[in-house]
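Protocol step 4 of 6: record predicted structures for both targets in the notebook before any analysis. Target 1:
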Amino acid sequence: ILRNILHWILTPLTLIALSLVQLWSYIVLAVQGKKACIHKLAGKATLAQ
């Protein structure tokens, strides 16, 4: 039961943290534009191997 209480307490904090990370990514995308969209692992050169 202690584990359930811990999960009940930590769930809102986790959701808030996730929302803040997503908000930050939107802000970075709005400020930097296309320069912020770099994902080298999914690039054409990597996928062609």
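Target 2:
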Amino acid sequence: MDTTMTGQQETPTPSAVLIVQTYLDAFAARDLAACLEHFAQTATILFAGGVYRGREAIEDWHKERFKADLRLLYLEDIRVEGDVVVVEAVATSKRLRLFKIDNLSGLVTLRLDQNQIIEAEFGLRMNNPEYWRL
């Protein structure tokens, strides 16, 4: 995956990319403890209209996502600008498949502080309809 950026953006720092990649690896492995280690105690997750604040809520969010079998099928890009990392990925879950949607293209915006995630915001990329497969 080429993460070199042009223009105003910078090349991702190894530490920022490593933090995000190890989190995504822990998520894929369903390693709850390793996932939680990546989040600050007061971190926030914004997901599907819900707000999850603090370690306990973030733990519950991960348990819910694991139960729904949320999986990243592949990463399209990782960009870093300062303390913000943006991941473009394609995901699937049991819930999506229930609605006959095989996968969705999304953005995850992660804000880091002192090598921990302090905010994670999950959203859809509406400009890529080719990822909607009914």
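Step 5 preliminary note on target 2. The chain has one domain: 14-125. Helices lie at 14-28, 32-37, 54-67, 94-98.
Proceed to step 6 after PI sign-off.
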